[in-house]
Amino acid sequence: MPMKGSGQSDLREIDRWDGGVGWIAYPDEQMQRASHAFVADGGVWVVDPVDADGLDDLLAEFGDVAGVVVMLDRHKRDAAAVANRHDVPVYVPDWMAGVAGKLDAPVERFGRELADTGYRAITVRDSSVPPWQEVGLYHEASGTLVVPESVGTGDYFLAPGERLGVHPMLRLFPPERALGSLSPERILVGHGEGVMQNATSALRDALDGARRKSPALYGKTLRAFLSG
Hints:
By secondary structure, the protein is α/β, with parallel strands linked by helices. It has five helices and 13 strands.
């Protein structure tokens, strides 16, 4: 199983709800890179996209694309290609450095809210050691939380018994200040399928158990590495 898929994609739809949809372009890859689109302010906003055959047809079910969003400094992915195809800008947080200049597409900056979407921008992490710039998006009215990296559902995020897990590199310093006060109905993540039921309890369990369950996660990862 490759870490990242390439070549011919095989789009698998995930996380469909009234206000949007998600997909994984290469379902057999180990990283399980997930992308999402949601409807807000009369348009479709595409988040951290990995391009795939059939993507434009999927997006068209929800309307016209209004913008593409990069939420993590290393999630440029196919944002420029999707934005150029739909003749829209790529939106990047105004504090995120080193991303805009690497995108071959028009760039718009956003601050505390993503344009007029009603999605509040949350600084999840802004650090130089390790290099990590990440923004979350939270729409309180719909209960939708998008977190691209600090939490996920890919197998390598999850200690035994977890539905949502803190990234292995952040287990000892989980993003409690950024995410701990939120009460989402659904959590969309950048790696793996989203948490579409009992999301608040899954988030609380992930944050509260991050340190305590880290030995179990690291042990699982080591065993998988040795057996591979």
